[in-house]
Write a structure and sequence with these properties.
This protein is 46% helix and 18% strand. Strands 2-1-3-4 form a four-stranded parallel sheet, sandwiched between helices. It is built from five helices and four strands, in the order βαβαβαβαα. It is globular, with a radius of gyration of 15 Å. Helix 2 packs parallel to helix 3. It has 160 residues and is of the alpha/beta class.
């Protein structure tokens, strides 16, 4: 449960209508990722991003997301990237490597490109925990990642 969260100000009329958003999803845990994609799309709609300006891309898995995100931002095809995936802990150390390198890599992408990246890659212990975070509404982590990316885009542009 979140405590003390101060939501950002609501988008101004047409504030985000020209913004180009890339939704970058993984091909693992497809049903969960599809639910995150739905949440991210809902957020874009709520924030006034034109449907024509939202494009979905796919990476094989979470480990590959940083390179895909950087390539998208470097191409100029999007103003921001929202990453969506689910890395679920297993019996081996694989989880730590994939989750850690994905998050570190995405921070590097932001700092290198100056483009905001929404982090909607779930890192959970169980499938049940993933579903708890991928449910409907604005607590969906795809929705939250898209909102964070748009809020950061607002901030970055205000300081440019």
């Amino acid at each position: 449960m979140k405590t003390g969260y101060a939501a950002p100000r609501k988008p101004g009329k047409k504030e985000f209508s020209g913004v180009r958003v890339a939704l970058l999803a993984t091909r693992w845990n497809v049903d969960i990722v599809d639910a995150l994609l739905k949440g991210a799309r809902e957020c874009c709609k709520d924030w006034g991003v034109s449907d024509d300006n939202v494009k979905v891309y796919y990476a094989p898995g979470a480990y590959e997301i940083p390179l895909a995100a950087q390539t998208i931002l470097d191409s100029g095809e999007a103003d921001t990237v929202v990453t969506l995936g689910a890395v679920i802990r297993g019996d081996t150390p694989h989880f730590e490597f994939v989750a850690g390198e994905c998050s570190r890599g995405l921070m590097d992408v932001q700092l290198k490109t100056g483009g905001p990246v929404g982090f909607g890659v779930l890192t959970v212990n169980t499938v049940e925990q993933a579903w708890e975070r991928a449910g409907p509404g604005n607590t969906n982590k795809g929705y939250e990642a898209a909102a964070a990316a748009l809020e950061m885009l607002r901030l970055v542009r205000s300081l440019a």
